[in-house]
Amino acid sequence: MKKKISGREGKLKGRRSLEDPNHEESEDQDLPSDEAGRLKIKKNYEELLGIRIEKLRGRVLNREKINKTIEGIYFICAACKRICHNLDEGLVEDPQNQNNLCGACAKERGVTGTAS
Questions:
Q1: Is 82 exposed, middle or buried (0-12, 13-18, 19+ CB in 10 A)?
Q2: How far is CA 101 from CA 2, 28, 57, 75, in A?
Q3: Lowest-confidence segment of 8-12, 23-27, 38-42, 79-83 by average pLDDT
Q4: Interatomic CA distance for residues 114 and 116, integer angstroms
Q5: What one-character DSSP code corresponds to residue 3?
Q6: So what's the pLDDT on residue 42?
């Protein structure tokens, strides 16, 4: 007879086999779980997009609802061309969605706008 696994461990059981065995967990240990998750997603975007980052710079990649009031936004900064998240790096959103900047680049350029 199999032992039934319930709760969070049961939900994660199937995902463990899909994880990369070479993934470095030690660097994420000191981060809160949600921040570590966003860091992992950013790395996945970098790998998936590769050279297309130049073409897509300044654009929003994905919007997610964190809860009823908070929206998370993954985007490529138009200036530094890094994949950013509005909760980690900040976001100065461009109305045409072509020239979004992270908080550091917007501050460096003296740009103000709709900060998320």
A1: middle
A2: 52, 25, 9, 9
A3: 23-27
A4: 6
A5: P
A6: 85
pTM: 0.62
Indicate the SS3 state at residue 69.
coil
16-26 pLDDT, tens digit each = 444 444 444 44
* 3-state secondary structure at position 51: coil
Measure the CA–CA gap between 56 and 99, rounded to whole angstroms.
10
Q: Which residues contact 28 (CB under 8 A, 6 or more apart)?
A: 36, 39, 40
List pLDDT tens digits, range 43-94: 888 877 777 788 888 899 889 998 888 999 999 899 998 999 999 899 998 8
Q: How far apart are the first and last CA of the chain?
A: 52
Q: Are 42 and 74 in contact (CB under 8 A)?
A: yes
Per-position b or e across 29-47, b if 16+ CB within 10 A of its CB? eeeeeeeeebeebbeebee
- Alpha carbons 9 and 86: distance in angstroms, whole number: 30
